[in-house]
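Entry 12.
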Amino acid sequence: MENHKKIYCNYFGYDVGDTIKCEVCLYDLHLPFSEKTKVRVAVDIHHISPRGMGGSKLKDYPENLMALCREHHLQAELSKDFNKRCKVIHLKNIIKKIEDEQIKKYKW
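Predicted 3D structure (tokens):
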């Protein structure tokens, strides 16, 4: 497994062989105005800030790594606006993870 995939999986608690769902598909599923689209399996771990701009090791941290299906990965690579949307969705997921950890930590 590539290093950036390991970092993503370790941070979000996935084991080898787990099915990881596309973060954009999951987010769109919960929007009130969305057509309940199918949530696809993530096939790529996308670098929100490209590896080519600063070296791969400097870009391999959880806040920069996002699980995407092939369709959304291609969109993110081709459109700066869509890539910004991905970053917002991903940061919301990180905030939710931190909040959930805090709830578990302080739950009596």
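Annotation: The beta strands are 44-47, 65-68. Residues 80-106 form the longest helix (27 residues).
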